[in-house]
Each structure stands twice: as structure tokens, then as C-alpha cells.
Amino acid sequence: MRKAIFPGSFDPITLGHEDIIKRAIPLFDEIIIAIGVNAEKKYMFSLDERKRFIEETFKNEPKISVITYEGLTIELCQKFNADFILRGLRNPADFEFEKAIAHTNRHLSKIETVFLLTAASTSYISSSIVRDVIRNKGEYQKLVPKAVVVAKK
């Protein structure tokens, strides 16, 4: 069984995340979207909200489950018997950052990282940009799945 963990803070989930997940569905038997908790990070959306956004977005996809976690992603992979970490790449800076993490994870475990390039139409979207647009009362609706739009009204 090909099982992947897609880790992130998803604060909030964006159309870029959604695109990566939808394109990964045919590649894996199961995808666990894992919302990481970092006590030092200040989030715009609560953990429950972020989880609800993702669950609502993928409510009709049986291959997808959503969990929250603390600690190392490789330990989470071991706990759930996942052989892959799924990551999206938007640009060369993402690649350099993600490559270092993937090498470290592979050195510490047998977990492989699978990278998917974001679609050109969503490659400029990041959660931090979305948060800035929301804070400044901009048209964030064009950047996120419907579940986030409904929640912010």
C-alpha cells in the first residue's frame, strides 16, 4: 500500500495545496494530510478551523484523512506506516529548502520524499500571502478553497 503524509501548517489551506493533493490522489492509496503544531508559531486560524477547512475541501475523497501532530514528520510516518512524504514545490527557493529537509529525513529514516510542482496557475500562492490579503481585507477568495471562504464570512 502506497501511503503518503502531506505535512504542513495549512494556515490556511490554499488552492496550491489543493492542487498538489488532487494530483497526488492517483499516485497513492492513502494520503494523510498532517497539520503540524508548532507552539512557537502564531497562527491566524485555530487548529480546529484549519482541520475543518481541509476536511470540508476533501469530504468526498475516501483516500484522504486529516490529522494533527507535534514532533518530527518522520516519526509520524513511522507511526502510520507511511513510506512517503508528499511536498509541493513552487519555486527554486522551495526546492533548496525542501531538498535539505528531504535529505535529512532520508538520512534519519527510510522515508522518501515525493515532490510535485505546483501548477503555473497557483505557483504564486502561499499561506503567508493569503494571510496578508485577509488581514488587509483583499480578495482572498480567489486564493483558497471554498471551505475557507465560507468560514471567513
UniProtKB/TrEMBL annotation:
* Organism name: Flavobacterium faecale
Per the UniProt entry, the Enzyme Commission number(s) are 2.7.7.3
Record's subunit section: Homohexamer.
**For the site Transition state stabilizer, which positions are given?**
H17
- What InterPro entries does the database record attribute to this sequence? Cyt_trans-like, PPAT, Rossmann-like_a/b/a_fold
Q: Where are the transmembrane segments?
A: none
Keyword terms of this UniProt record: ATP-binding, Coenzyme A biosynthesis, Cytoplasm, Magnesium, Nucleotide-binding, Nucleotidyltransferase, Transferase
Q: What is this protein called?
A: Phosphopantetheine adenylyltransferase
Q: Residue limits of the Cytidyltransferase-like domain?
A: 5-132
